[in-house]
Specification:
about 230 residues, about 15% strand, elongated
Amino acid sequence: MAEPTRTQARAAEIRLRWLTLAAFAAPLLVLVAVFGTRFGLWDAGFGLEVLTLKIGRMLAFAGLAAALVAVLIAFKDLRRRGAYAAVSLVVAGAAVALFAVQGQQFAVPAANDVTTDPAEAPAFSRAVLALRGGEDEGGASVACPDLVSVPRQVAPETAAAALEAAGFTVRGAAPFRADGAKEGFWFGLTYDAAIRIRPGRTDVRVAQREGVKVGDEACRLARAVTAGLQP
């Protein structure tokens, strides 16, 4: 009788290891998606929208189910198997929670090209246009809630400082304008910002290069820039 008991215990331990590995599947896929995007194996749309938000989300819920099964298996011998169940449950639970928060954030309907002046959006400089493909689609720029023009003429130095405070790298600052760019850490999504300075009014435009939907990130960055332009 002892031998079958050891065999069953060994089989249970093997199942626990596989279930624990399943709980790590979603975080591991996200890392693959990030590094593949950063090293140019695929574009940000595939890495973020397909691998992470679609396949990764499914694996996260599958990992949570695997973690719950691991808890049931480990319950018979918590002293020896409890660690597997605990690790599986923590990792899978955290992954599902992060995907839930991210899903709410990305579900916000918003554009990737926003401005304080939709009727006449600030134009990007030639250097920025070259990086964006050489064409300025200013007519596609839209307004954001609570994003308004700054009712004063700011100095170019003030505009550059506002860009830096919002996390942008300043590409240029001259009379009546300033430009900057901000590259995301994980998937390298890049946002270009243009500040147009006129007598009595300063306008801001922020546009993503890749066209990947990530909620209201462009609006958030534009608000951060305009906040730095306030007196």
